[in-house]
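Fig. S4 source data, part A: sequence.
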Amino acid sequence: MDLVHTLLAIWIIASLVFQNSSNVEGRYHYHRKPKSSNRGSSGSKPPVSSPDPQVPSSPTSPPSAPSDPYPNDPGNSSANCVFDVRSYGAVGDGSNDDTEAFRQAWKEACAVESAVILAPEDHSFIITSTIFSGPCKPGLVFQVDGILMTPEGPDSWPKADSRKQWLVFYRLDQMTFTGKGTIEGNGQKWWELPCKPHRGPNGSTLKGPCDSPALIRFFMSTNLVVSGLRILNSPQFHMKFDGCEGVLIEKLSISSPKLSPNTDGIHIENTKAVGIYNSMISNGDDCISIGTGCSNVAIEGVTCGPSHGISIGSLGVHNSQACVSNITVRNAVIKESDNGLRIKTWQGGTGSVTGIAFDNIQMDNVMNCIIIDQYYCLSKACLNETSAVHVNDISYRNIKGTYDVRMTPIHFACSDTVACTNIRLSEVELFPQEGQLLENPFCWNAYGNQETLTIPPIDCLRDGEPQNAFEPSTYECN
């Protein structure tokens, strides 16, 4: 009898141990569905690929293209919590407003480490202007596999919403925005506003407010990854980074029509330690634009065009100080574009653009292939001013291809009082797409040297250093 009691006790203890071990799943995510929703659950599959969000925040040199952007593939970890927006009431039929579902999914996912907010494929979600704020737990992934779209045009835009931005990601660290889906900006009706360039009666431009939303904005955030997405038809800039540090952008496709106004592809300002890799951008303005406060930026494997090329600037507007340094663009293609590699500054500014390297760039029927313009102006009212942003240490190496003969392929228009210095050209060979070779590149107050013979020949570049009273240290940035 004692033996029977002993065996019974052992069986009871073993059962309790087994039951407790089966409750480990309680560590994973559960939430209440809205009462009206039965469209999904948190048990959706984790993302196919979620880039490792660890990006160096302050490298000593520009970031280099990673050989494997998914070394840990957190999407394959069973520990990831997936927050499918359908579980919060999102319909995804392309007509209902799903904004509140995304906000609720963000709120819960933000509090969980390595969480995934999922907008699944085969669905089209409309959301209105929204700020997704942090700080959040590290490793947050916003994954769009379906279509995420704006309301269609100004008349559909909620009156209470900002007309200057659509999606804003604010105060985040180690966040990834990725997926195999599409971000649709529905920009056509915004581009046709009469206050846009040449959209008024008889080709005029009407005065008055003409706000249009930038599609995606990252603000005051660190260690970001944006990858894999298709971004289309933004009303204004497609993607902006402001006040960020440690940004990896790769494998994006950004597209809008050639004549869509102010639709820059990627714009960065006051942002450091940036890598932009292996992406295709065609749009109606700058393919990539770099504003003041940017340093340690590497751009590689990017195809631009049609577009306005890759631009540093415009800088120094309203007599402001502008500081840009350590920018590298290599292994890129620029085609059918109004500009190629451009540095543009307003008169009257201060500060400097320094340490810029353009290397191995293929041009295909580009106007203004190589241009420094220190007389940038949007009206006829601009006056000559004595101060200027100092442009220094600019290298053009292995720049080859064809140019549109309507403009000279090389144009260095530097300030009367603050010369451009240390411009270096090597293996620059540019031929006309059609017609005769233009043999007169333009230079004004530009100093530097040709390390190899340039095609077309550039005899206007001055040797040595300027002899006037210009003092470069006056324009250095802290």
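Fig. S4 source data, part B ends here. Confidence is low (pLDDT under 50) at residues 1-79.
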